């Protein structure tokens, strides 16, 4: 098997290229994707043409509805918001229509479309360029939601998202843009709804996604002489691979959830409740969350320590271990 | 448009008229169903504002994409596009076999007829029309998009986004505005600073026409012209059909000019003197296209059709699916 090192954005681009070559119906639209802000669409307009890699006005509702309409008429659009927080301008489309049109209209006609946006705290750019919408998205039925923590997962998840007949919101973390990892030349998909054990362990499980997988791995490594920590990346928030988490808890009996989104009503809260409902007997200690506090994501020098850091994760691990 | 230069054949005029008669009979049926507590959810009466809808749907092929206006919940538009509305009435009655499996109460969805759905949110049609237009252009099969909504919907910024994108990409989209001068319980006089909503189109370089929305045949002629424009690849076009709302927004609601109720006498006068069915019928009689007896036969047939549809739909079982069935309908 031939393997090469790709950045996360290059991996997304490879997924686009392969799927656009494979399927004429796939096209991209978004704000400044021809001469792109971020490298994942670089060179695509040159290869596929400006009528298949479309720059739109800065008009998120119309971009989103355009993708919906095109999907209903048999195309497979990928709509890129640049920052995922900008999709909130299309809140009705994003939360009440994209995922719900199919069901409300009698499950007659699916919407094969991918929504793409970058997100993440720690870039010093404050709330609207940072917000991570997965907690809000999974609250609304009908949209699958994923976020990779490696280039390998980015390519495989994106290819799976493009081939899915349902809408998928593909999030990627801005701080991982240049993150490199090995990607094979051979074709592969990462199925939506399959978590990945990024490090095996027996004493405590950390569930973390995107950029926070790296922080969790740092803590696991640092404490490895005294504690065996398992790190699980859910990779998709919807569908959520609860089985892999519960299997891990059968071994470790302890859980820390790292979630860069706000603590209140978020993904970490949802997972905590699911673990309580389906795995209460597996727990030897209460679940602990490490999230962004419940104030807006600040900019400047501040957000570097309001987001989950290795120090905060370590403190949570120690609290759960009672050490 | 001048009626003496009509491009419509007599057969088309009779069929347009028959469709309007049927639409208005079904509109009365829906009002009867909601007033007798049998219809679940909303109903937004069409009343004397259904001629533009009949015109909008009439020249569409099955492959052309229709976004119906919510007034009469698109009955006129869909009848005219030759969609079988039985399943739509069943949907309004919450019946199993309704066009949305009884899940929507008032949404239309006939994907095979390229009527994909409707939204409860005024202005949601606009973004979708961009996607339909883009797909139509990309596929190159000659499809057009008939994007119907009211003047109130142009308060949504999405209308501006859609006009911008459709104009920029020269998409085959007709912005078909059934302007009744009202947005819910507010008069457009309060909400819009100019006399013509179609003036908005000029800002995007989209040509616009204004037509008397009570004149069925004039609306149909403009619909023909508008579709010819988009089918020729000349980009979007805007049609403002000036029509009337002679009743409240939805059953039991208000009908105000500012904080003052609209004059009931004026609305009665509109219903009597500006009824598009009576106006069109009189024209057909006058021109000798229809005889009095034929006209009354059309009315009788439409009333019978409405009664039969109601009976057939009410005979269907109520849609009460299991939670598991519903859960499995979220994804395809």
Briefly, what is this?
The complex is a heterodimer of chains A (323) and B (332). Chain A has 323 residues and is α/β, with parallel strands linked by helices. Chain A contains 12 helices and 14 strands.
Description:
The complex is a heterodimer of chains A (323) and B (332). By secondary structure, chain A is an alpha/beta fold. Chain A has 12 helices and 14 strands. A 7-stranded mixed β-sheet of chain A has the order 3-2-4-5-7-6-12, with helices on both faces. In chain A, β10, α8 and β11 form a beta-alpha-beta unit. The longest helix of chain A has 15 residues, at 8-22. Chain A is globular. Chain B has a single domain (3-319), classed as Thiamin diphosphate (ThDP)-binding fold, Pyr/PP domains (Rossmann fold). In chain B, 44% of the residues lie in helices and 11% in strands. In chain B, a hairpin with a 2-residue loop joins β8 and β9 (260-261). In chain B, α1 (10-35) packs across α2, α4 (86-92) crosses α12 and α5 packs parallel to α6 (157-168). The interface between A and B is large, with 41 and 42 residues.
Which features would summarize this protein structure in a list?
heterodimer, A: 323 residues, alpha/beta, Rossmann fold, 2 domains, seven-stranded mixed β-sheet, five-stranded mixed β-sheet, 12 helices, B: 332 residues, five-stranded parallel β-sheet, two-stranded antiparallel ribbon, 13 helices, globular
């Amino acid at each position: 098997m031939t393997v090469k090192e790709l950045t996360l954005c290059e991996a997304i681009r490879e997924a686009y290229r392969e799927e656009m070559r494979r399927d004429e119906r796939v096209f991209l639209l978004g704000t400044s994707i021809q001469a792109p802000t971020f490298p994942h669409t670089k060179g695509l307009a040159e290869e596929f043409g400006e009528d298949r890699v479309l720059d739109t006005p800065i008009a998120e509702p119309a971009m989103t509805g355009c993708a919906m309409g095109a999907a209903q008429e048999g195309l497979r659009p990928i709509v890129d918001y640049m920052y995922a927080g900008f999709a909130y301008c299309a809140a009705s489309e994003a939360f009440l229509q994209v995922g719900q049109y199919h069901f409300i209209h009698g499950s007659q006609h699916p919407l094969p479309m991918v929504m793409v946006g970058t997100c993440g705290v720690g870039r010093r750019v404050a709330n609207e360029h940072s917000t991570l919408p997965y907690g809000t998205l999974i609250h609304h039925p009908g949209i699958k939601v994923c976020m990779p923590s490696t280039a390998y997962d980015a390519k495989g998840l994106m290819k799976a998202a493009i081939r899915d007949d349902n809408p998928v919101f593909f999030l990627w973390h801005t701080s991982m843009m240049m993150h490199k990892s090995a990607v094979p030349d051979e074709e592969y998909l990462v199925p939506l709804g399959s978590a990945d054990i990024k490090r095996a362990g027996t004493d405590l499980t950390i569930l973390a996604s995107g950029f926070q997988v790296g922080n969790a791995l740092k803590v696991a490594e640092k404490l490895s002489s005294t504690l065996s920590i398992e790190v699980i990346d859910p990779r998709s928030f919807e569908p959520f691979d609860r089985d892999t988490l519960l299997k891990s808890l059968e071994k470790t009996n302890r859980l820390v959830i790292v979630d860069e989104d706000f603590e209140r009503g978020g993904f970490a809260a949802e997972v905590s409740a699911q673990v309580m409902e389906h795995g209460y007997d597996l727990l030897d200690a209460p679940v602990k969350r490490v999230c962004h506090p419940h104030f807006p994501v600040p900019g400047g020098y501040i957000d570097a320590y309001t987001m989950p850091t290795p120090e905060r994760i370590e403190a949570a691990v120690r609290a759960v271990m009672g050490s | 448009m001048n009626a003496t230069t009509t491009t419509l054949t007599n057969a088309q005029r009779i069929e347009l008229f028959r469709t309007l008669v049927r639409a208005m009979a079904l509109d009365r049926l829906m009002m009867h169903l909601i007033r007798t507590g049998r219809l679940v959810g909303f109903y937004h009466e069409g009343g004397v504002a259904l001629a533009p809808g009949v015109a909008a749907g009439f020249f569409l092929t099955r492959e052309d994409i229709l976004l119906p206006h919510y007034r009469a919940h698109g009955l006129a538009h869909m009848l005219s596009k030759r969609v079988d509305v039985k399943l739509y009435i069943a949907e309004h009655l919450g019946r199993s076999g309704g066009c949305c499996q009884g899940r929507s109460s008032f949404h239309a969805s006939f994907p095979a007829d390229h009527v994909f759905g409707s939204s409860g949110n005024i202005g949601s049609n606009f973004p979708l029309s961009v996607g339909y237009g883009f797909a139509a252009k990309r596929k190159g099969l000659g499809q057009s998009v008939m994007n119907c909504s009211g003047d109130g919907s142009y308060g949504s910024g999405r209308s501006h986004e859609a006009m911008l994108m459709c104009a920029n990409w020269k998409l085959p989209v007709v912005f078909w505005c059934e302007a009744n001068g009202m947005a819910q319980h507010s008069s457009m006089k309060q909400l819009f600073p100019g006399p013509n909503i179609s003036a908005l189109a000029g800002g995007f370089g989209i040509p616009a026409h204004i037509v008397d929305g009570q004149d069925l045949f004039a609306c149909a002629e403009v619909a023909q012209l508008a579709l010819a424009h988009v089918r020729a690849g000349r980009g979007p076009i805007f049609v403002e059909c000036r029509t009337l709302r002679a009743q409240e927004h939805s059953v039991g609601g208000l009908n105000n000019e500012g904080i003052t109720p609209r004059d009931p006498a004026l609305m009665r006068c509109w219903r009597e003197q500006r009824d598009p069915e009576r106006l069109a019928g009189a024209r057909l009689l006058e021109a000798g296209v229809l005889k009095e007896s034929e006209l009354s036969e059309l009315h009788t047939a439409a009333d019978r059709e409405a009664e039969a549809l109601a009976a057939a739909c009410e005979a269907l079982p109520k849609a009460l699916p299991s939670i598991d069935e519903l859960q499995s309908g979220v994804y395809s």
